[in-house]
């Protein structure tokens, strides 16, 4: 059977759903096909200790106004909220393997962009990187070439020094973008910071312009009740306006149709013919559907791309955690001997979670590399890790329910030239790519890219007045 429509969107993550919403709002017929049983992709709902929470993205960066603008433009019934806690902390181990090796657990500095400080001599920066590295960073090398293809690590090391890169920029880059600073150029990570850097010729001046004045790690926004609600609300409005959203059905092939348009073949053999196809699947799916190996996307980064991410979300009964010892959570510096690479104290961070939980019950999320099986496979290990990272005492008996989530497509490689050529060639045939694979990781990038693509395809005016 062949069905006809104006656009087929492959993948009901936030990118695909936003394209669908824009398409139907512009009067086009849109069908979204999602392989999973639920919509949302990395905006996924879980339930623990009787509370609905996020098992994927749990906040959005404020480097763009993408999320509040989407909510306002489509009058989505969602409340944007700010984190409630003090700064997140950076846990580092100094002198690993040497006598006198020590741990530090320090608040993240207030005014930084991916760890690049507005003032390298600010006490909260010096506490982490030390006097020498702070003084080196303050003496920024201003006459180095400005190269948009250089990695963030190369730019920071050359201008601000190795110490700042190692102790602050790289840990934050890994934490925010799931990639080492050596793997990706600044323009792709943070276009606004790059624009300010190009204009001023100084990383410090750019950070002074762009850095938020908020406790470290809290310059993000959230949605009351969880970010999964954003995907839910977009899907609901898109469906109300006529989008067809099919779950539990994978798209197997996308080919030129025998007449005009593109033929989309579902795993069950059904075909949908459309004028446009938008692939919003994540890197692996996009590479498969465009007939490439997923490694073809990778620009041959100078550092290995991290493998998939494993999250453990645990309900913990602990009076010590009620004092919120690490604010919204912990980022672990590379090279530190821990099983988890980050910890989020969910109810310290979000008031809606705190209000939903009984007194003394906490929700803690540990993130680890998916291939790192050591260290987090029992309640005792989870308790030990939480104790370790927060500096409090948590015992095995304090750990209640634990949810494990694996994300295979969470890391987006920097695009290779041959991948860019593949994408452009496909676009000429009516097959377009959006989502994190095209825009970079994070809602602040993914949503504007999806909206811009939909505006281009369906001639939506860029400023919309919703009734
Ligand atoms: C643990 C975690 C925490 C994160 N935290 C944050 C955060 O705090 N803030 C932030 O801004 N970003 C965060 N991110 C990143 C952010 O979630 C993603 O960049 C964004 O959600 C990607 O959206 P997407 O629509 O491009 O892809 P996805 O959400 O991956 O959606 C792709 C969809 O396509 C479907 N699909 C794949 N192949 C097929 C096929 N062949 N046929 C049909 N369907 C298919 C998949 O099932 C999936 O539902 C986080 C990500 C993870 C994993």
TrEMBL record:
It comes from the Bacteria. One of its GO terms (molecular function) is oxygen-dependent protoporphyrinogen oxidase activity. It holds the Pfam family Amino_oxidase. The keyword Oxidoreductase applies. Its EC number is 1.3.3.15, 1.3.3.4. Residues 14-299 form the Amine oxidase domain. The lineage of its organism: Bacteria, Bacillati, Actinomycetota, Actinomycetes, Micrococcales. This is Oxygen-dependent protoporphyrinogen oxidase. InterPro entries: Amino_oxidase (IPR002937), FAD/NAD-bd_sf (IPR036188), Zeta_carotene_desat/Oxidored (IPR050464). It comes from Microbacterium paludicola. It is an enzyme of class 1 (oxidoreductase). Keywords: Oxidoreductase.
